[in-house]
Amino acid sequence: MAQNKLITDLVSLVTPNNDDIFVIVDNTTNPSLSVTKKISYANLKESLQDMIDLMVSGGTGIDATYDDAGNTLTVSVIADSTTQKGIVSNSGTTIGTRQELNLIPGASIALSGVDNPTDNRVDLTIKNTGVSTATSLSASGSTYDVLSAVQTLGDGTQAVRMRTLKAASSKVDIAFSDANNAVAIDVVPSQISINDLSITAPLALAQGGTASTTASGARANLGAAKAGVNSDITALSGMTTALSISQGGTAAGTAQDALQNLGGLKYVANVATVGESIVVSQASLVSNEYRSELKGVRAGSNKVAISTISNDIAVDVNADNVLNAASNNVNFNAVRLTNVADPISSNDVASKSYVDSVAQGLQVKDAVVLATDSALTGAYAVSGQTFTLTATGTPSIDGVDVTALGTRVLFKDQGTGSDNGIYTLTTAAASGVSPVFTRADDFNTNAEVDAGAFCFVLSGTTNAGKQFVQTADNPTLDTTPLVFSILADSSINDDSITNAKLSNMDASRIKGAITSGDPNDLTADQVITVLNTASSNTLDSARIASVLDSNARTAISVAGSAAGTRRKINFIAGSNVSISAVDDSGNEEVDVTISSTAAGGGGVSLGLAVALG
Predict the structure, then answer these.
(1) 552-590 in b/e burial notation, b at 16+ Cβ within 10 A?
(2) 451 inside domain
(3) What is the DSSP letter of 51?
């Protein structure tokens, strides 16, 4: 059947047959450009099914398939490919819907899990580690249950409540044993007295008792005699062996052996041949007992001390009281009393060094190695009596480097006069570390720095050999400026030695040195050696005229050959030669003229100057 419908109106078509033909115009807006196509319903349906098959595909965890023959679209979830949410409930009450279930063990619960890929599952094991209940076991006789209760706690767990074991008195001891795996209960015998026993009848003899409630009955039952004088024992007979000491005997048959066995003494005797005996009585009977009586030992005066040390009597001398108690002059037998402290009171003994220093009005201090020649830059700390230099590195004082700890140095030129005094190096300089000086032990109190404190300087370019004395009277250390003045100077200043200060010398002596070192007395030859070292200056001829005859020498040579070195030269006229000589005192020479008398004449004039040689 023929119907005219636009493509949008196909839904209103009646159900077509497969052989029905569709005519489709692919351009409805411009009929002149339209192209008419025909297609059967079967082909159209097949094309639409193919389009649907192409458009349907699976997603993550989803599988989609289209059955063309059956016109069926199947959508399914791929197993084990995605994580899905599950509903978790407790006793029918939903707790939550989540992808994961987290099990948390509570009290007395242990959880363990194992992945089981074969069965595609996780095997979870839940164990109860707590005590679910507790009961006491039955026993015969009088029993006490140590189990108090089984208590249910707030979290649902149960706790076993046990009674504590307690010692009712000191007669019972309770302690852990077997590595704390057991409780040991024992009786303390020392805490039990037989008098504590409650009995209605005396113990029988077989049980260690007397089977009696009276002393006489007990002795009768035991066959014993009472103590002291009594009529129960009339005699001991038939004894062949002496009673032992443990039995109350002497273990001896004679008195001498008995004393020896019992450790007894018959008497005490003094065996010394000289001195005082300490025995008063060898043996005295006192209160039915024999005893020896000895003298006591006591100190005759406070010069002697008596004491007991362990089992010994110690006798010692009180040294402080020996001379204190002297009533006569003490003779030291030409030996010295040494190592005494400086005196304080007027009657105190004084050492020689103290007397020498007081005689000069000085307090002699140990010598210092160096003394400052200018103020040192740094900071003084009163608390530690230290002076820390500002500069780091090794300090140089009066031309000498100070490196050794304990080096004593006199500070005398500080701008703050109270900083002056004798110091020792206590912290040596190092890279980045400033040296520290601390007041010396003999110069760190008011009394030690008083006027008259004196020291000698051992080294230094300027101060070596000098002696300095502190002149400020009654100073307060770290407050009063300390002033140091030169007391003496053993060094030799320039231009300070006169001839009168030189030691006496023998006549015709000159002091000097041919080589470097100490000066010596020079011989005449050594003096000439010194003079010969002159480079240009010569001796004034007038000063050597008086010694020409004895000391002058002249070396003579002929044609380069040495003829001799003598004090005089004698000219002898040879053939055809005449000689004349004129004494020239002004020039300190003799002019000799040698003339030839041969044909042709000619001559020579010779001037001789004699010098020391």
Answers:
(1) beeeeeeeeeeeeeeeeeeeeeeeeeeeeeeeeeeeebb
(2) yes
(3) H
CA dist 275 and 388 (Å) reads: 69
Name the domain boundary from 471, 489, 507.
489
Tens-place pLDDT, residues 11-67: 555 566 666 666 665 655 666 666 666 667 677 667 766 666 666 666 777 777 777
**Cβ within 8 Å of residue 506, ≥6 positions away:** 521
- 480 with 550, same domain? no
Q: Which residues pair with 447 in a beta bridge?
A: none
Cα 380 from Cα 227, distance rounded (Å): 92
456: how many CB neighbours lie within 10 A of its CB?
19
- The torsion defined by the Cα of 568, 573, 578 and 584, in degrees rounded to 10, comes to 0
Give the chain's largest Cα–Cα span. 194
Identify the three-state secondary structure at position 312.
strand
Closest CA to 466 of 454, 482, 453, 452: 454
Our count of domains for the chain comes to 3
Q: How far apart are CA 171 and CA 191, in angstroms?
A: 5
Task: Indicate the helix (H) or strand (E) that contains 224.
Answer: none
350-395 pLDDT, tens digit per residue, is 777 776 666 566 788 999 999 999 999 999 999 999 999 999 999 9
Q: How far apart are CA 23 and CA 200, in angstroms?
A: 138
- Yes or no: say if 317 and 304 are a contact pair by the CB < 8 Å rule: yes
Same domain assignment for residues 484 and 556: no
Which residues, 6+ apart, have CB-to-CB distance to 224 below 8 Å?
A: 218, 232
DSSP letter for each residue of 389-411: ESS-S--EETTEE--STT-EEEE
Contact 153, 141 (CB under 8 A): no
- 576: in domain: yes
Phi, psi of 541 (to 5 degrees): -60, -30
Domain of residue 14 covers: 7-55
In a domain, 111, yes or no: no
User: How does 57-85 read in b/e, with b if 16+ C-beta sit within 10 Å?
Assistant: eeeeeeeeebeeeeeeeeeeeeeeeeeee
Q: Are residues 485 and 570 in the same domain?
A: no
Reported in sequence order, the residue ranges of 447-596 that DSSP labels E, i.e. its strands, are: 453-456, 466-470, 484-489, 510-512, 520-522, 554-558, 561-566, 577-584, 589-596
